Amino acid sequence: MHTDRTAPPRSPRLRRALSAALVLPLLLGALAACGYGSKAPKDDAAPAAATGGRKLSAGTVRIGHFANVTHATPLVGLAEGLFAKELGGTRISTQVFNAGPSEIEALNAGSVDIGWIGPSPAVNGYARAGGKNLRIVSGSASGGVSLVVDPERIKGPHDLRGKRIATPQLGNTQDVALLNHLAEEGYEVDPATGRGDVTVLRVDNKETPTLFERGDIDGAWVPEPTASKLVASGGKVLLDEKELWEDGEFVITNVVVSRKFLTEHPDVVEAVLRGSVRTNAWIAENPEKAKGHVNASLKRLTGKALPAGVLDRAFAAVETTDDPLAATLRQQADHAVRAGLLEKADLTGIYDLRLLNKVLRAEGRPEADSAGLGAE
């Protein structure tokens, strides 16, 4: 980390981020209609071939996820072949996304059937489509999000005024969490442009560490492993988001499915959920091997593996779970409303946990609760 960042030049990356912020108000109408971001390319190198056996009702299932440690379940399950084992002759096709709004767009467009995604984009996508496009069918992960800052510029929460803080994408889960936290601390920020007492810049996770090292941003509210990368570059954790939640638990990753795909191919959805539940159990029993799978997948998907220290810290910060932690999703939806990124919406029916609970019962596990938001 540079020791003198009092007046850093703005890099081309930062200028692009600022330019995007300037045009965001013009894009909001379009975003409301079709979702955020752009569709990701297929991850053709992923271990997508099924292991053989009886084909289910769909020949192929298209799965979306991120190249994040908070998405350890799909990264490990795909690499270890646990999803393929449950799907038999049904093939797996995968797409990788930087943030949830882009994945919701792909789900709405019909290019993704099932996706691992954060709660805020799921809620936003559900509300904008009047509940016609998706259902949350399982939880996947809790925690793994931090506000990491340059300790030379930001000593505490009262030093954020005038600073530049990055999030992965407008309207994604970390973006909503930051805007809500800033409001609770008394800072005023326009949610669309990111301008205000604190400047919120929407930056691709891949670029955030470079901007931080150059001094072009003063901190970032980001998921793992980006948070641990910033710490390795000299950043300080100003706030671990776990501190804001009762019992330190909050949903960071859900499993969502296209409502059409769920209706037409419940056997395939059930197989994917069985793979997810068994993957989470495998991760708990084989943490070192799981870390190896995560790092190998990140290297393949991003071009670079994580250093051991970064991987260990990031992996320890995330808890895989089948529980959707539905009560915390309700709170996150309220945060999005207060932040001005979502109008108040009736979320009753956003969950359909029937297939998950069928799988959990078969595994001798207690059923998951929808906190009154289920379609059952």
Automatic annotation (TrEMBL):
Keywords: Cell inner membrane, Cell membrane, Membrane, Signal, Transport. It holds the Pfam family NMT1_2. It comes from the Bacteria. InterPro entries: ABC_SsuA_sub-bd, NrtA/CpmA_ABC-bd_dom. Its main location: membrane. Coiled coil: none annotated. It is found in: Cell inner membrane; Periplasm. NCBIfam families: SsuA_fam. Belongs to the bacterial solute-binding protein SsuA/TauA family. This is Aliphatic sulfonate ABC transporter substrate-binding protein.
